[in-house]
Amino acid sequence: MKEWAKGFYQSGAWRKCRKDYLKSKFGLCERCGKAALIVHHKKYLTPKNINDPNITLNHDNLEALCKECHDKEHEWNKKEKEVLNEGLVFDEDGNIVRA
């Protein structure tokens, strides 16, 4: 867990939101139907949006995932951040920057 996100993920608001969201999805992964252990943010959290409840606590931005599907999601995102062209990469916010 990133240092800037620890306070949010340890908050009562997140714990309640996470519990309620998993319950609303019957504890099942929304991609494969296995047991969901993780509530994933579709729009990834950043230091810029970590205090925006419309992103962090909004059920429309959440997805219940099993560990395997969550790992696949982040592996896919990692590939997006690889070098696009010599000297260019995606930054944490999806902007193209010089490597």
Automatic annotation (TrEMBL):
Keyword Hydrolase in annotation: yes
Keyword annotations of the record: Endonuclease, Hydrolase, Nuclease
Keyword Protein biosynthesis: no
Superkingdom of origin organism: Bacteria
Organism for this UniProt entry: Zhenhengia yiwuensis
CDD domains per record: HNHc
Molecular function GO terms recorded: endonuclease activity; hydrolase activity; nucleic acid binding; zinc ion binding
Annotated HNH domain residues: 29-74
Stretches that traverse the bilayer: none
Name this polypeptide is given: Putative HNH nuclease YajD
Any Pfam family hit: HNH
Biological classification of the source: Bacteria, Bacillati, Bacillota, Clostridia, Lachnospirales
Cellular component terms per the entry's GO annotation: cytosol
Stated family: Belongs to the HNH nuclease family.
